[in-house]
User: What shape does this take?
Amino acid sequence: MNRFAIEQPPVVAIPVDGSEAPYPVRRVYCIGRNYAAHAIEMGHDPNREQPFFFQKNPDNLDPSGEFPYPPHSSEVHHEAELAVMLKSGGSNISIEQALDHVFGYAISLDMTRRDLQAEQKKLGRPWEIGKAFERSAPVGPVHPATRVGHLPEGRISLKVNGDLRQDGNLNQMIWKVPEIIAYLSEYFKLGAGDVILSGTPAGVSEVKRGDRLKAEIEGLGAISVNVV
Assistant: This one.
């Protein structure tokens, strides 16, 4: 007998490389403008300022390899990112202990309705309509840190139909992964299943139906995503 008033929604789970047990998702945090060159291309100051975050929904994460072009938008951009998957959490985590809470890492895309996001910015409104829409975060398998280690540096790139659009290095993050975890934990009680998208390098650009995206992060391989 179902103990809930309605049918229980399915748990969002991402495949784990080398394991039959998937990674369950609790929350998704995204840091904005975390690479200086990307901040500049978006018209902002690249200096190290207080970080800011927005959220996607757990079921926005999509490992299917397909990205359905969303309605009500005519300008959708790709943003290649390192996703950080937590195995534990808490409040006021120190920078020195932050990586102890990391289960693993994955390649992800923060797909963005740039036109709708720009409208919300002008109006001083939240970005969710431009960021947290259905299947807006294609993601690859989770690679456990026990196997790949932590990733303070490494090439991150994205190609569209074979043409290189984004090309950076994880060491170019303004706020590093331990700092992101520590800062977030001052404002949220982090927990197992939390996913953090850590920002994107310069070169974000528009995608069209029929495009094939290939995102790569050194140490994690590559993922391919078809825009349909």
About this structure: The chain has a mean pLDDT of 94. The longest strand covers residues 102-109. The two ends are 39 Å apart (CA to CA). Helices lie at 36-41, 95-98, 114-123, 128-131, 145-148, 177-187.
